[in-house]
Amino acid sequence: MLTGMNHLTLAVSQVQRSMDFYALVLGFAPRAQWARGAYLSLGDLWLCLSLDKPEISSDYTHYAFTLEPGKMAEFRARLGAFGIVEWKQNRSEGDSVYFLDPDGHKLEAHCGGLSSRLAACREAPWEGMVFYPHGE
C-alpha cells in the first residue's frame, strides 16, 4: 500500500519566477523545465511546479522543509536578502520560520522532527491531545 510521500505539485503563475525562487533562494536542484512546468528536487523530495492559477487559502495549510539545527539565523538572513515575506510567527516546539513563495504558497523551514514535536507535546499536551503507540 502507501509507503510515503511521492511528490508535491504547486500551481504557479510564472514558471521561471518560481523555478528561480525554489532553486536560487531555497536550494532545490533543477531537474527539468518545460513551457508549463518544472521538476526540482531537494533530498528525496520531488517538487513539480505547474503553470496554473494558484488559489491560496487563508487557512493554516503549509509545506514545511527541514532546516539543519544552528542554521536558522543564516536562513532568515537569506530570506531577508531576497525580501521574502513571513506570514506567521512560530509558537510551537523547534525553531521555525514561516514564509511565502512568489505565488503566496505558505512554506516553513523547521529545525526538528516528529519525535521532538511529540516529546514537547508529552511535556505540555495541547487540549484534548491523545498519543498513539507506533508500530504495534
UniProtKB/TrEMBL annotation:
Keyword field: Dioxygenase, Lyase, Oxidoreductase
Gene Ontology MF terms: dioxygenase activity; lyase activity
SUPFAM superfamilies: Glyoxalase/Bleomycin resistance protein/Dihydroxybiphenyl dioxygenase (SSF54593)
Occurrences of domain VOC (ranges): 4-112
Family matches, as Gene3D superfamilies: 2,3-Dihydroxybiphenyl 1,2-Dioxygenase, domain 1
PROSITE patterns: VOC
Superkingdom: Bacteria
A Pfam family recorded for this sequence: Glyoxalase
InterPro entries from the UniProt entry: Glyas_Bleomycin-R_OHBP_Dase (IPR029068), Glyas_Fos-R_dOase_dom (IPR004360), GlyoxalaseI/FosfomycinResist (IPR050383), VOC_core (IPR037523)
Protein name: Catechol 2,3-dioxygenase-like lactoylglutathione lyase family enzyme
